[in-house]
Structure formats: structure tokens, C-alpha cells
Amino acid sequence: MVLRPHSLMTIPAETARVAKAAHRKPSLCMQIRDTLGPVFTDEDFAPLFSHRGQPATSPARLALVLILQYAEGLTDRQAAEQVRARLDWKYALALELTDPGFDFSVLSEFRDRLITGAAEQRLLTALLTQLREHNLLTPGGDARTDSTHILSAARTLNRLENLIETLRHALEALTTAEPDWLRSWVPDEWFDRYGPRPDAYRLPKTETKRRALATQTGADGQQLWDMITTTPEKAYLAQLPALQTLRQVWVQQFYRDRHGKIRPRDPKDQGTPPATLRLDTPHDPQARTSVKGDLLWRGYRAHLSETCDPDTPHVITHVATTPAPVPDLGMTTTIHQDLTEAALLPRTHLLDTGYVDGQTLLTSRRRGVDLVGPLRPDTSWQAQAGKGFDITGFALDFDQNTATCPQGKASSSWISHARPTGYTEIHIRFPARDCRACLVRTDCTRSKTRGRQVMARPRAEHELVTAARAEQATPQWRRRYHARAGVEGTISQAVRAFGLRRTRYIGLAKTHLQLVLTAIAINLVRIDAWLREVPHGKTRITRFQALRTAA
Ligand code: SF4
Prior knowledge:
Elements: H1 13-22, H2 28-36, H3 59-72, H4 76-85, H5 87-92, H6 105-116, H7 120-133, E1 142-151, H8 159-177, H9 179-185, H10 189-194, H11 207-229, H12 241-253, E2 254-256, E3 262-264, E4 288-292, E5 295-307, E6 316-323, H13 331-341, E7 348-350, H14 358-367, E8 370-372, H15 381-385, E9 395-397, E10 402-404, E11 413-418, E12 424-429, H16 432-436, H17 441-444, E13 453-456, H18 459-472, H19 475-481, H20 486-496, H21 508-531, H22 543-549
Parallel strand pairs: 1-7, 7-8
Antiparallel strand pairs: 1-5, 2-3, 4-5, 5-6, 9-10, 11-12, 12-13
Helix pairs in contact: 2-21, 3-4, 3-21, 7-21, 8-9, 8-11, 8-12, 11-12, 14-18
């Protein structure tokens, strides 16, 4: 499609007159239009269009429609209908009253175009630029971040359901591509086995029968794959996405025994892939399973960062979407990197325990960001015992590479290990002869033959962690950290008011686009509230909790 840029700067006079007469108090989209102007220009999206083909609908208008759609929780059909029928939407989009709008399918095509051109982030960047120009966003203040889980749009399947559904999905794809060829050889019993949708309710209950069914499914899937790959004129079918998924799931879930038979893997086998790689549904191959505390979910993880200065609107400045098992800790540096590039790096960043460790404290300090978040407690049994034999009881001399234990004994070795994850660990050992003769050995080590071993971080990290742990015990720090809780309200708003809990789409890229659009919609609602002088909501705490922060 070819782009013929339109200007949205001027609202047609008749549209403005009628919309203002009908809306004595401007609606959200009119308020935003009056304050920020059109927000997007067609030129912002020019790289997404070719130089040939049909003229495209104005991408700046479509981008605004997507955002208003999220702000009001509408389907594509409903959003397209609003463009035709709503006066305030016509005002915001600078359309003539007689404009017939567009077919709702244009929105889906435009989302695909944004994803193909990796232009999702441009939407948020364009809004943040406007907010800065209008002094509604000031970089360099306080910010806070939290994450939440997003459920996949696909049905959750157990392991056996996933195997059957994956084969069923592949057969459906082959039925569309080569129905005659498939019918010519497929065994009749497959229609009973893979015709209906698998449902745990109807599947065998005993472990023996379930394993037998999994073995049968494995053999059937392998037979299907062999039929395709040994028939030269049908080999192209192996490239169908559903067949590629089948292949991947079979590699992950089955193995060939020494007699050449296909067997289901034991989930505890070494060959079973980790959660970050395992495909759990053929309908959303990028969704992954993760566990956080008591919560188990299949899908993705969203990170939201917002400003939290009391005298400005609280604006979401960064969003990130990852597969569900990616831990929060890995995102701290990514968020700071992205905010640096956008010139929106905060001075103070409030986060929960999942985002903070010695290394992130150090890298943030080097960027000029004061990371405020509780460090994980030392979980070693020595720390739990509270008798002074954890790392804090040892004097570390980073110049001489030696340590002295609580009994005054010197270490015998000090070795640094650089981990593939980028972390450096220092392993310190004490002489076995000293520890064996030590009167307080049982408080220090459980080994009866070897000396105590202590794991430390490099000096800069160690000193930062020691200072941060001491600071976190003070009431001043707790009062400062209290402001982080507000981001949970933002997560709650995104989930309850904007439907973020379950993705509308399949795949990571579209889920991320949903997160970006949700973040922009929240920002518009907040800017609207700020302009109407609605005060910030306060984080509610009980009187009992208030007692502690007041201490
Ligand atoms: S067990 Fe070894 S390291 Fe621990 S206090 Fe005794 S001598 Fe020191």
C-alpha cells in the first residue's frame, strides 16, 4: 500500500462546531486533542509503506483509533463503528462529519503492519514526546516498576492434551493443504483419536493408560512425519508452521529407545527442555509456563515503569513483554538502557525484590540511578541461625585476597569465577585442619571433613550490598520505599480496566503491542484526569501498617 500523507492539524470547521455544541464538557479524546494536538503524523509511519499499490488509510488516524479502542475497551468492529458515528472521535481524528470511516479489518492489517515494521514502540515514543513538549512529563525524577503475568489467549493444556492437540493441529493443517493425499493413507482409527478436541475429562485417568496413550500418540506423530519426509513431492508440507511445531514438540517430548520405538520422556529426564524452551500449546508456540510463588501460568510477563513524582501526572514511560519464565532481575538493566536512549532515565528507581541484587545496584549506580528496593535476604542456614557465621561475620580483605573468620582464622584460598550469566563469584575456603579443631564448627559448617567455604561478590558489589542492607533496616528507607506500592495500582488498573490479564492475540509481538496500546490508553486517561484537576489516588494502607511507617 502507498502512503499519501494527510495532515490532521486542522479539524474541519463543521466537525468542530457540532462536536463542541454536543459536548459542553469535552470528552477524553476531545480534551487530549485540544491539549496535545493530533499526537501522531502520517510521516511517523512512512517507513511502513511501500511506494506502490492502493492508497492507505491515514496511519496517524489508525494509530489514534487503536488507542481510543483500548481506552474504551472496544472490539475492532466497535471501534470502526465509533469512527463512523461518534462526534468526539471525528473531532479527535479531524474527520468531516460525513466521513464514512473504514472497514474494521483495516485495524487488524494496521496492527500487523506495525509489528512487521517493529514500530510498536513509536506509538509510545510519539506520545511521550508530546507530553514532554507540553511539560506534562519531566525526565530525571522518581520512577517505579513492577511486573504482572499475562495469560495466553490459547487454552491451557496438560501434557497429554498438548501432545494430542499438537498432532490434531498438524492434521488440520494437512487437511487444508493436501486433503486427498491425507485421506489416501491415514488410518481410520485416527479420526476417532484425533478428530475431537482432547479434553482431560475424557482422557484415561490411570497413569498406565495415560502413558500408553502418550506412546501411541508419539508413534502416530512419527508415522505422519515419516510419511511427509519420505514422499518427495509432499516434502514441502514439513515446512508448514503446524508441522514444524509438531516436530519441535516431538523432539522435546519423545525419544527413541534402543529398539527404535518412540517413547514419552520422563519429565525429570535430562533431555526434557527447560520451561523457557518448552512448547505447551500448538496454538501459541511462543507462550511459556512459569511459576511465581503459588501462581502457575502460561503466557507472558509484562513490565510497566511509570513516573511517580507527586507534582506531575504519573506517566507510563516504559513497557516490556517477555516470555513468562524470564525473571524480573534480567529486566532492570534493559529498562535502564531503554530509558537512557529515550532520555527518560529516572534519578531514583523504586522496585521490588525481584529486580534488585548486588550487580543491578552497581550498574544502576554507574548510570546515575539510585535503585531503591529490598535485597533478597541471605537464605543460607548460617544466616537463618543468626549466630554470626554468615558472610557478614567474615572480614574480607579485597586487597590481599584473604578473609578472616569469626574465630580469627585466615582463609587458605580465594578464587574468582566469572559465570556465563555475567556474574563474578569469589569462592573462599578455610583450612580443613582449622575447622576440624574449631569449637564452634557446628555453627559454621556442616562438613565434618572439609573447611568452611564462603561465597562472596567482588568488592564494589559487596560494599554496596552491605550498605544497602544496613540502610534497608531504617524507618527512613521504609518511608521512601513506600511510594513503590503505587505501581501495583497501575498494574491493577491495566488488568481490571483495560483487560491486560489475558492477551487478545497470539504470539509475543502482538501481546507486546497490546501492552503498548494499554500503556498509552492509561496515559491518556491520566492526562485527562490531571487536566481536570483530579488528584492522584493514594495508596491505601491500614492503620496498623501506618504505625510502622510512622515510626
Ligand atoms: S569452622 Fe572454620 S571458618 Fe568457621 S569459625 Fe571455625 S575455624 Fe573459622
